[in-house]
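so im writing up the methods section and need the Site-specific recombinase, phage integrase family record in one place, dumping it here so i stop losing it
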Amino acid sequence: MPNEYERINATAMARKSANQLRKWRVERATSVETFANAIGSNCLVRELALEHAHILHRFWQQRALAGEVRINSANRLMRNLSGLYGTIHAHYRLEFENPFAKLNLRGGREGKRIAYRASFVRDQMLAEGALDSLNPEARRIVYLIIETGLRPSEACALDRSTINLEGSIPFVQVTDDMRQTKAPGSVRAVPLVGVALAALSTAPWN
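--- predicted struct ---
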C-alpha cells in the first residue's frame, strides 16, 4: 500500500525532503505491519473488509487500555491506513468502501500544545550558561526557535540565501524549496528580533 501510494502521488512525494520521506515511509510501514500482525496475515487490498478494521480497532484499544500506547498515537497509525487505502481506492475507482474511514479510539486529547510560560523561557532557557553544553550552531537554532516560533525543521533548513540581516527589518524566509511545508501558510517571512537576531548576527558567515 505505501509503495502504491507513492507511485500514484509521485509528484507530491517528490517535494518531501529526504528526512521527511524517511519518516513518512517508516510510519506507514509501521501502520501496515501492525495491521498485518493484528489480523494474522497479509491481505490483498480488494479483500479488505470492515471485520479486518474492527480487529485492528480492538488491537489498539486493548493496547491503549493497558497503557502501552497513547490513544492519539494509535489513532494516527489507523489514519495512515485510511489515507493509503483512500488514495488507492479513488485512483482505481474500487467498488468497496474504505473500511478504515473514521476508525478511531475515543478519549484522546486533541488541541494545540501548551506554550511555555514567558517566565520559564526567561529564567530557565535564557539563563546565563543554560545552553553552554550545546555547540554554537545548535545554540543559535534554539535561540531562533525561542524568539520566532519556527519549527525545528524550518530553523535547521535555513542557509545564507534565506537569512537576511540587511535593511531596516532583518528576517528569515521559510521556503518549500528543500522540504514539503506543513501548510500553504508555512511559506513566510519571519522578522528577527531579540535573541534570534543576536544569535544569527554572530553566525560565522557574518
